[in-house]
Amino acid sequence: MITVHTSPLAQPGSGEAGGMNVYIRELSRNLAARGVEVDVFTRRADPEQPPVIEADPGVRVFALEAGPLVPHPKDQLFCHLPEFVTELAFQINRDGRPYELIHAHYWLSGWAGHLLKRYWDIPLVQMFHTLGDLKNLLSPKGSIEPVLRLQVERGLLRLADAVIAANPDEREVMIWDLQADPAKICTVPPGVDLDHFRPADRLAARNQLGLPNRPLVLFVGRVDPVKGIDTLFEGWRRMLDLLAPGDATPLLVFLGGRRTESAHGSQFEPALERVMGEAKRLGLEGSVLFLGSQPRAILPLFYNAADLCVMPSRYESFGLVAVEAMACGTPVVA
Predict the structure, then answer these.
(1) Which InterPro entries would you find in this protein's record (predicted)?
(2) Tens digits of per-residue pLDDT, 119-159?
């Protein structure tokens, strides 16, 4: 598998990590459990990042040097793809390990997969996770995907041997708007781990997380314009204004963005700081709790602690958060 711009080991909700990371990690783990060995190749973004790690039995994650050893905007990574592919091909030739399939995730990885087909005559399976045309259609003004992405996605629909769509609507857009061959496209909705995400006692979950026993609404997601955080805050402000005297004030628990703790207190990544500034501008400081992204191991506690999960996204190829919340028995407003 190829996932150039983000590692499946990254914590969802921080930086570029989100549902795609979860999908790749879970797909790899379950394929390995069925006897299919999986190697995942991603870009190394930290000098301390190990070059290879066994993420799960039968699953190895390789971090390849391509471009600066720092987090890099994904829209600036295309020029580093030849270096990434060269490093990947060298790694594989050195190991002498044959592969039967390339499974690429996102448009950048798809183009890397296409370049790799120069080295091996094996099928390329592409999954976009999001489509640039749909993001441009639904994103707020100013969040326009580059023409390069649109051109590459259209090209990959022709060049890939097979394409996986996460939902029927995405498949229809590929066929009718992007002129893809219907015979190449298979709709395979992602799933959810029902052993991990399941109903639990609400009060016990709140006590374990140290959350107050008051109406709680949960948001889980990356800090990205397409997630509709501006709409969420505007709606939250209106709801607070409609509360009658004596009504319990709800709390919005915001899980997204990178928050770190140090001797100097909490530190927030710039994108999250901007979101917090918007909340302050709207007078929401006392009714929004910014906890940053949380480890996946404890996400079921947050879902079970909440009375409601909100998903104001302008566009989702699947909407993993909604499915995880419903698996825990928590209603979703989307």
Answers:
(1) Glyco_trans_1, Glyco_trans_4-like_N, Glycosyltransferase_grp1
(2) 788 999 999 999 999 988 887 776 789 999 999 999 999 99
Which residues are registered as beta bridge partners of 2?
41, 104
- Tokens matching residue 196: 């991990």
* Predicted confidence (pLDDT) per residue in 33-91, tens digit: 999 999 999 999 989 899 999 999 999 999 999 999 998 889 899 999 999 999 999 98
Q: Is residue 84 part of a domain?
A: yes
| Pairing relationship of beta strands 265-268 and 259-262 according to DSSP bridges | antiparallel
Same domain for 158 and 294, yes or no, is no
Domain that holds residue 286: 202-333
The contacts of residue 283 (CB under 8 Å, 6+ apart) are: 237
CATH number at residue 43: 3.40.50.2000
- Based on the domain organization, do 28 and 83 belong to the same domain? yes
Cα–chain center distance at 82: 24
CA dihedral 37→38→44→46, nearest 10 degrees, is: -70
Contacts of 324 (CB under 8 A, 6+ apart): 192, 197, 220, 299, 300, 303
Task: Looking at the structure, tell me whether residues 135 and 237 fall in a common domain.
Answer: no
Q: What digits encode the pLDDT tens for the residues 219-231?
A: 999 998 889 999 9
106 and 62 both lie in a single domain: yes
